[in-house]
Structure of Citrate synthase:
Amino acid sequence: MSIAEQYDASSDAKDARLNIDGESADLPIRKGTLGPDVVDVTSLYRQTNNFTFDPGFTSTASCESKITFIDGDEGVLLYRGYPIDQLAETGKFLETCYLLLYGELPTKAQFDDFSTRIAYHTMVHEQMSQFFTGFRRDAHPMAVMVGVVGALSAFYHDSTDIRDPEQREMASIRMLAKMPTIAAMAYKYSIGQPFIYPQNHLDYSANFLNMCFAVPCEPYKVDPVLSRAMDRIFILHADHEQNASTSTVRLAGSSGANPFACISAGIACLWGPAHGGANEAALTMLQRIGTVDRIPEFIARAKDKNDPFRLMGFGHRVYKNYDPRAKIMQKTCHEVLEAVGHGDDPTLKVALELEHIALNDDYFIEKKLYPNIDFYSGITLRALGFPTEMFTVLFAIARTVGWIAQWKEMIEDPYQRIGRPRQLYTGPTERSYIPMDERG
Ligand code: CMC
């Protein structure tokens, strides 16, 4: 049975009827557990010889998924049904990872077993360290991440057969475990310090901070307030349904590519300033604004149609209400700044005032532009001690679990096919080749 027929069979009785040039096509409407219904257009081409056209996927559900739900109008984000604020307030990042990967919150025994499995895979093959020395010291760490994570498939051949469930599981654990190690190595390399090996007695986030900020010549103790904040930031970024990088991972994976290569593709996509790069851009913007009295000038520029400037950290393709992650990030930002003794940080003052002004401005109200998670994350990450180039890398560590969960869901779907979009062709019609010496 084809995918289209299978979907026809499982759809609700209600159909949408589309009329094209007097011919009609009946398209099944499918219902999810939450969110808008979808018109299943898989049979449209067969029935009418037409494609649908939706370049930015603004009205297109690219897949069926049970992992994450967003209601952008209400500002709701659920991982496997659990609200993001509940998970971030009280849960641990590895608990969220377990939830995203396996569908349920772990029992204590399951959590301990999962944490141990992760801890025992945090080291990377010793030869991988030589990879780093091939990069310039001033390389952007995201460039290093794309290369080194992609290279994992050259080191761990025994977990690249995607048809084998045990290898898929092993690749998932390895990705989750090694990502912080690789990220910390990229950071250490960029500042010319020796790599710090992972410590199994530390939890996921504390271990990451230790690998970033410890040095071999003196003891270093991770501040529990900071490791808790790091953990919460990872939870907030863990998954976000079919965003650009996740869709990239799914598309790359749909051809049967190995998971390490797919995650590397996701990292490349995340790097863009409209996606994961926005936290860096938001902090840069807040620093450029500098003082509260300059805010009106920047608000005016953001509203000016002839000026390409946008308020970074504002607006979202899906959230047309306050990004629920931004609220928790704002709170975490205050906690971290207090803990590091920067409670009166001038950038935070600018951010709070800018948020206040924008939220009361007709332009932003009408366009439903609210702060997104990136508005406060840059200030927070800087206070944790990271340079701006590392911000997107931290996002990549957190999002790895979402990418893996979505990739696994796709591979384990028996009706999965290669992703192969079509196009509206507007180029030249067929014409004959002209030899070079005859061209005018
Ligand atoms: N500042 C000023 N105006 C804005 C902004 C902004 N940040 N964002 C959108 N607009 C305006 C835009 O000019 C347009 O106006 P008009 O209808 O008059 O042409 C309208 O709002 C709709 O914008 P859009 O670009 O069509 O919306 P989109 O859904 O394609 O873009 C976005 C979403 C996130 C790319 C965009 O809001 C943006 O560029 N924001 C700044 C970058 C940013 O913070 N990105 C992080 C996203 S959250 C992280 C993640 O989940 O990956």
User: Anything to note?
Assistant: Strands lie at 15-20, 23-30, 38-39, 68-71, 76-79, 82-83. The radius of gyration is 24 Å. Confidence is low (pLDDT under 50) at residues 1-11. The longest helix spans residues 165-191.
